[in-house]
Design brief:
The chain contains three helices and eight strands; from the N terminus they run H-E-E-H-E-H-E-E-E-E-E. The chain has 166 residues and is α+β, with helices and mostly antiparallel strands. It has two domains: 76 residues, GMP Synthetase, Chain A, domain 3, CATH 3.30.300; 62 residues, SH3 type barrels (Roll), CATH 2.30.30.100.
Length: 166
């Protein structure tokens, strides 16, 4: 089952508003303390465009000095990255970030993988369009899936068919 509550994470609450002001959404943030070192990983998406290495660099330049001040003498390793083409969702919050993207979810009520474009997500369900139910080899226009029946979910990138004369 997918987790809930990343938005209540202390680091998330500190950095999400800063990134939001830059037109960037925070997908995930994690901190690992190892002795005198601290490792922080951030995953981001751009709100109005595809996320790029420039977005990652901007976030790094914003977050690193701020984190370094808070840590004092401790060593900081910060990694800022994109979600990747086939990101595995860790929190239901991610469905709202990837509206317009194709996702693949394992629906325990159907006991099947369901693939569709995320059109909307609220606190209980995700709406999918152009839905393909893999085990049934069935296509339907739209489908609503409750988060409670989603065992796994990930982005479902489809390579464009380039056989049409390009």
């Amino acid at each position: 089952m997918l987790a809930t509550g990343i938005q209540k994470n202390k680091l998330f609450m500190e950095y999400e508003p800063l990134l939001n002001a830059m037109g960037i959404a925070l997908v995930e943030i994690n901190r690992v303390d190892r002795g005198n070192s601290v490792i922080v990983t951030m995953v981001i998406v751009a709100k109005e465009t595809e996320v790029s290495i420039d977005h990652c660099a901007k976030v790094y330049r914003l977050a690193y000095p701020r984190m370094e001040l808070q840590l004092g003498e401790r060593d900081l390793q910060l990694e800022v990255s994109t979600p990747g083409l086939q990101r595995t969702f860790k929190d239901v919050y991610e469905f709202s970030l990837f509206t317009g993207k194709r996702a693949r979810v394992y629906d325990t009520s159907k006991e099947a993988w369901v693939s569709g474009i995320i059109t909307q997500a609220d606190e209980k369900t995700v709406q999918l369009a152009q839905v393909y139910i893999e085990d049934e080899k069935e296509m339907i226009d739209t489908m609503s899936v409750e988060f409670s029946v989603i065992q796994k979910a990930k982005l479902d990138y489809r390579w464009e068919d380039d056989s049409h004369g390009n």
